[in-house]
Amino acid sequence: MNADTLLWSLLLGVIVVAAAAAIIIPTVRNSSTAPPPGAVGTALGAALTAAALGIAGSGTAPASEVPAGSGQVRTVDVVLGDMTVSPSHVTVAPGDSLVLRVRNEDTQVHDLVVETGARTPRLAPGDSATLQVGTVTEPIDAWCTVLGHSAAGMRMRIDTTDTADSADSPDTPAGADSGPPAPLPLSAEMSDDWQPRDAVLPPAPDRTEHEVEIRVTETELEVAPGVRQSVWTFGGDVPGPVLRGKVGDVFTVTFVNDGTMGHGIDFHASSLAPDEPMRTINPGERLTYRFRAEKAGAWVYHCSTSPMLQHIGNGMYGAVIIDPPDLEPVDREYLLVQGELYLGEPGSADQVARMRAGEPDAWVFNGVAAGYAHAPLTAEVGERVRIWVVAAGPTSGTSFHIVGAQFDTVYKEGAYLVRRGDAGGAQALDLAVAQGGFVETVFPEAGSYPFVDHGMRHAENGARGFFTITE
Question: Rounded to two decimals, what is the model's pTM?
Answer without folding.
Answer: 0.74
